[in-house]
Amino acid sequence: MKVVLLGTGGPRPDPHRMGPSTLFSLGQDHLLFDAGRGAAIRVVQAGVAITRVGYVFITHLHFDHIGGLADLLFAAWNNARNQVIKLFGPRGTEKLVHHLFEAYSSDIWYRLKESTFTVEKLIDIRSMVKVSEVEPGLVHGTGEWRVFGEYVDHGHALGMTVDEWPCLGYRVEAFDKKVAISGDAVMSPGLLKLAQDANALILCCYLTGAEITSPDLELISKHVLTSSGMAGKIAAAAKAEKLILYHIRQKPKDFLALMVDEIRKDFNGPIIVGEDLMEIQL
């Protein structure tokens, strides 16, 4: 199993990082988790043809996790991917994709018209993308791998219900390995279930303790996005073997080192601070 952290940034533009997006290569299958800004570019930079991504799993519908989705789908289609892309996500994903196709309806019309005159044919992109809105449990699987989902807590303590704001984390099981990916989350039963005894936990870690200097940042670190003060506790409670950090707010290198030091207070396993296009073999 090869995992590539395509994008490790957060919602604010960062010249060094693209938006959250993680690629799992499982034999001949390529699974993309979230499609933040620059996802299509990063897929190609990771050495995978854009037409080879057959599965996309969305954690939630914040713009920084889906901002690159249209580019990913249309780039694959325009390169004559004439096989289905299976797209999974929480409630609201189908509506999102429907409106994307409405917004690009003129482009779709033109390319289908052009395709009637060319040797290379395009199927209708609306037939190429199959959307499934998913609940906790088994999301999808083949003979070689399975993906499970659970609801995670991402701002729900601020008065949002899961029905109003469904957010998912995922767990990939393949080749005797188990890898959890949090999406945006803080400590919750769903996240711990996904990460339980995982060989690796890919966890958002937005802030270090030194950055939490205002009531707003304190609220974020407590209820919205895991900080370094919480990350080690999550990994230790789940008994994860390895912790991989992503969705990191732009910060100086000494703050990144401080982030690791703070996590080590609670977690003794290997800690990897993610960078864009970092490859991890599991």
Explain this structure.
- By secondary structure, this protein is an alpha/beta fold.
- The chain has one domain: Ribonuclease Z/Hydroxyacylglutathione hydrolase-like (Metallo-beta-lactamase, Chain A, 4-Layer Sandwich).
- It has ten helices and 14 strands.
- The strands form two sheets. It has a seven-stranded mixed sheet.
- The longest helix has 11 residues, at 93-103.
- The radius of gyration is 19 Å and the shape is globular.
- The mean pLDDT is 97.
Main features:
globular; seven-stranded mixed β-sheet; 282 residues
Sheet having the most strands: 7 strands, mixed
Beta-strand fraction estimate: 25-35%
Q: Specify the overall morphology.
A: globular
Count of structural domains: 1
Give Rg in angstroms. Answer: 19 Å
Average pLDDT rating = 97
Helical residue percent? 25-40%
